[in-house]
Design brief:
By secondary structure, this protein is an alpha+beta fold. It has 3 domains: about 180 residues, Immunoglobulin-like (Sandwich), CATH 2.60.40; about 200 residues, Neutral Protease, domain 2, CATH 1.10.390.10; about 70 residues, no CATH class. Helices cover about 35% and strands about 25% of the residues. Helix 1 packs across helix 2, helix 9 packs parallel to helix 11 and helix 10 runs antiparallel to helix 11. The radius of gyration is 35 Å and the shape is elongated. The chain starts with a strand and ends with a helix.
Length: about 550
């Protein structure tokens, strides 16, 4: 069994940024609607992706037009790209946010606008840039995930992908991913290390190809810092060191929060299945009821700074929760909700200045949580039945909603710090006991709040308060029933500490009954004693002198 972390969005991160411009600005472009590319056009884009053994990818984009005009094409949001005109004249250029040409704002890309006129027969321009992780590789598998392809409608377009010699594409695992459709390559080489796509859309396209490498065993290095060991593929050493640094920086704060320590936590990168490539940020396996190594999706190294870190911290929080005695087998919703909430709070609070990607991710999660709360009417009765293996996004969002709103109401991370101190050394195996300790930490009934969200939980906090209050109000003359009620109450507390909600409920209800009935029980006892005394006195024969005594007289 393993617990994955669901990632709500793919690389399309809609973070608003300041517009970057070059000299000679052309007029503002209007938003373009993605549409099918005509079969015959006067202009064309040709993309070429060349991948090496470490995933480094060289990209060239050739644009050709036989008539004057203007166009736009997506380029990296950096200075790491250039263009060269080999035929014709480039008249004007400018760079704008992608939201100026399509209805999405892409963090890593800009739209390069250009107007031109051909000389002789055509205008020709080449754009070039590189991607250090165009393909993610952990032998014997790899997945190529292209840069974002986008260009002005009305042009035809095609793309070629070249894998290294000896690499082989997995059958059926090569797709062009568009906004309106996905489709396979139009041609593949016999060696299966080359694919060609005729691009059927213009506004937003990715190419994704899974492949097997020539080598079957990765070069793995072991990195250790503090209590953490990262078994990393050599090519991703720098990313592994970043995660180790993050773990060690937040470790003491998490120890103070969870009131436990960790020992010998291992971590490693992985490449998900083709269809889950960007949906699962990481997971922690639980083989045989024991917690395993942290697995982090290496594809997240390509995300905005902060997304990768939040995913890693999410998995680390699972280790801390496990050490406190809370198992995902019993309380998966609490595990996942806390992992989401605490990973974001950790980044914001203990790893300043905070990552832009983390802020964006939290905003997306909040919006999803609010939407689910609205659509369900605040009824999350499906959460207690959540079991490992179900990675529907709304479960994560709903779990985050519950844990984060409890924190907002009762003191944030400090509230949960009180909770973890209370449960230290005790097992929390069901929602009834969880609600009890959450209530103790809040010094008020959290069970009532959970019941309002559709949880069927016992209100032990209120029951114990009622029982304690009823016993304390008893007159000492109401004996032995005050002592009996006190004994039953103490037995209930013992059962709560043992995590036995059923036994605690029985003892509490018995204690309440005895305490609330002490007056009547005392009166009945006194009446019974009086009746017994009368009965005994009436049934006793009068004393007479022995018979031999009379004989002597």
């Amino acid at each position: 069994m393993k617990i994955p972390r669901l990632h709500f969005k793919t690389l399309r991160l809609l973070v608003l940024l300041t517009m970057l411009s070059l000299p000679n600005l052309s007029p503002t472009l209007t938003v373009t609607v993605t549409m099918a590319i005509p079969a015959s056009t006067s202009s064309s884009y040709f993309y070429k992706f060349v991948v090496d053994e470490n995933g480094f990818t060289q990209i060239t984009v050739d644009y050709t037009s036989s008539v004057s005009g203007y166009s736009w094409v997506f380029v990296p949001n950096s200075t790491g790209w250039d263009w060269e005109v080999s035929s014709g004249v480039l008249l004007h250029t400018n760079i704008v946010e992608t939201s100026r040409v399509i209805d999405l704002n892409e963090y890593f890309y800009r739209a390069f606008n250009f107007s031109f006129k051909p000389l002789e027969d055509a205008f020709r321009m080449r754009i070039q840039f590189n991607m250090s992780t165009g393909a993610l590789i952990i032998e014997p598998r790899g997945i190529f995930f292209s840069s974002l392809i986008g260009f002005k409608e009305g042009s035809s377009a095609s793309a070629e992908v070249f894998l290294p010699e000896g690499y082989r594409m997995v059958g059926g695992h090569a797709l062009a991913l568009g906004r309106s459709s996905n489709y396979p390559p139009d041609s593949v080489s016999l060696s299966r290390n080359y694919a060609r796509f005729d691009l059927r859309e213009s506004g937003w396209i990715r190419l994704q190809i899974e492949f097997f490498t020539k080598l079957t065993t990765p070069e793995v290095i072991t990195l250790t810092q503090g209590n953490f060991t990262f078994n990393a593929v050599k090519r991703y050493e720098s990313y592994a060191l970043d995660i180790l640094g993050l773990f060690n920086r937040v470790y003491d704060n998490l120890v103070n929060l969870f009131n436990v320590t960790l020992e010998n936590v291992e971590a490693q990168f992985f490449i998900p299945d083709f269809n889950d490539f960007l949906s699962v940020g990481g997971y922690v396996p639980f083989p045989g009821g024991k917690i395993g190594a942290i697995h982090i999706n290496v594809a997240f190294t390509r995300y905005i700074e902060g997304v990768f870190e939040v995913s890693a911290l999410h998995e680390l929080v699972h280790h801390f929760l496990w050490k406190t005695g809370i198992s995902p087998d019993d309380l998966l919703w609490f595990h996942e909700g806390m992992a989401e909430y605490i990973s974001f709070e950790s980044i914001m609070r203990w790893y300043p200045p905070g990552y832009e990607g983390a802020l964006y991710e939290k905003d997306v999660l909040e919006k999803n949580a609010a939407q689910i709360n609205k659509s369900t009417g605040g009824n999350f009765n499906f959460l207690p039945q959540w079991k490992p293996g179900n990675i529907e996004y709304y479960y994560y969002a709903a779990a985050y909603y519950v844990t984060s709103r409890l924190a907002e109401k009762h003191g944030g991370l400090e509230y949960y710090a009180r909770f973890f101190k209370l449960i230290k050394g005790r097992g929390v195996k069901d929602n009834d006991i969880l609600a009890y300790y959450l209530s103790l930490a809040a010094n008020t009934s959290v069970a009532q709040t959970l019941q309002g969200w559709g949880f069927n939980v016992a209100n032990f906090h209120t029951l114990t308060e009622e029982a304690r209050g009823a016993i304390d109000k008893l007159n000492p003359m109401f004996q032995p029933y005050k002592s009996i009620a006190e004994y039953l109450y103490q037995q209930a507390l013992i059962k709560l500490e043992e995590g036995d909600g059923k036994g605690a409920s029985q003892f509490l209800r018995a204690a309440l009954f005895v305490a609330n009935s002490a007056l009547i029980l005392t009166l009945l006892t006194m009446v019974a004693i009086l009746i017994a005394a009368i009965h005994l006195s009436r049934g006793r024969k009068p004393k007479t002198a022995p018979e031999y005594y009379y004989r002597l007289i």
